Amino acid sequence: MSRFDQVISRKNTNSVKWDYSKNIFGVDDVLPMWVADMDFPAPEDVIDALHSRVDHGIFGYTMPGTSMEKAIQKWLKRRHNWDIDGKIVTYSPGIVTALSLAIEAFTSEEDHVVVQSPVYYPFFEITKKHKRKVLYNELLLNNDFRYEIDFLDLEEKLSNPKTKLFILCNPHNPSGRIWSKDELTKIGNLCVKHNVLILSDDIHSDLLLFNNSYTPLASVNEQIENITITCIAPSKTFNLAGLQASAVLISNDSLKRKYNETQQKFGLITINTLGQEAMEAAYSHGENWLNELLIYLEENVLLIEKYIHKHLPDIKVMRPESTYLIWLDARALNKSDDEIKDLLLKKGKLALEPGSKFGDNGAGFLRMNIACSKKTLQDGLERLKIALKK
Ligand SMILES: Cc1ncc(COP(=O)(O)O)c(C=O)c1O
Questions:
Q1: Which domain-ending residue is among 266, 285, 304?
Q2: Is 50 domain-assigned?
């Protein structure tokens, strides 16, 4: 029995996933397998660090120090063979906050921002809220049911003089695709050529499955590093999203200065005390827990593949190279997203993310979060079958 088999109720904890179904889906009695957090407790070392910080009892202003920088440096070196200088690190409560600050800092109203849909929806929603124009470099599905980048279209969009920022998701949410070093080099070189900055959201980069490795875009070469803002966080990796602590890595001094000025403008210069404690403990002591987690997630991926292949053969499962979000292709059912959503909620009592939320080319897909016990996953799969079996 794995520690991740334990089912712990998250109801009545103000959990977005478990306590807000009524607000979000209009129904209460559904199994939630949508928002990207896990149903697992954080590593014990993180919980212990939080306990001792709480026991201290004094919660005045705090600021992450050099020990945090060292913890991040060591983590990136150990897990991704990436050497960074401690001085490039700055902090953010969340990656969406960092994204919003970067748009504010590095672009102006009416500028263009390129995203690769289907993609984590705040990339385009936040951009629009800033009154910047979103250009969609749609990802293409190849014959192996894998997303590829349309580089011709990407270059056309990057070469538009109004394009100032490209937002990359590496690894990619919702597909779990990890961009290869070659792809990253091409992306980076195009952005260098056309003078476009890159925000690389690498929040899922620690959740590497099936022996896949990940290359941080900023590690490809110095020119690319110079135009890249990288966002990392322990929030997905160790299930700490509610503690709101992330890091933003900017090597280029003048970009970092501009970003820091924008943080100051909005009073977002530090992160909360408990988030700091959790982040440092996770990066310093969370490795064994993470290794165990990855094995459990791989088993869950295999389980969902097998189940769907057997019971719902019209649905295609995209095997993730990273993270715990499964992209399901339900287009062969020939139903609209609304019809599918209705069937899932009313017949299956199951809440998933509809693919169209990730961009128009996500229509007909579903995103299922499998970071839960096998018992919960089995329950979810049975509900999926009840909802969608012909
Ligand atoms: C790609 C990506 N970026 C950012 C976030 C959210 O980050 P945060 O909670 O730190 O704002 C998510 C959450 O699902 C995500 O998938």
A1: 285
A2: no
Structural domain count of the chain: 2
Residue from 127, 173, 231 to probe ligand 1 pocket by mutation (most atoms less than 8 Å from CB)? 173
Model confidence pLDDT, tens digit, residues 259-282: 999 999 999 999 999 999 999 999
Q: Which atom belonging to ligand 1 lies closest to the Cα atom of 325?
A: 16
> Considering the entire predicted model, what is its pTM?
0.98
Indicate which residue's Cα is closest to atom 10 of ligand 1. Answer: 94
pLDDT digit string, tens, across residues 46-76: 999 999 999 999 999 999 999 999 999 999 9
Q: How far is ligand 1, taken at its centre, from the CA of residue 203, in Å?
A: 7
In a shared domain, residues 298 and 161: no
Please tell me whether residues 70 and 192 are part of one structural domain.
Answer: yes
Find the residues whose C-beta lies inside 6 A of ligand 1: 36, 94-96, 120, 169, 173, 201, 203, 233, 235, 241, 246
**C-alpha to C-alpha distances, 320 to 172, 188, 223, 369, nearest whole angstrom:** 9, 24, 30, 12
Q: Distance, CA 120 to ligand 1 centroid (Å)? A: 8
- Domain hosting 355: range is 3-43+288-388
Judge if 298 and 254 occupy the same domain: no
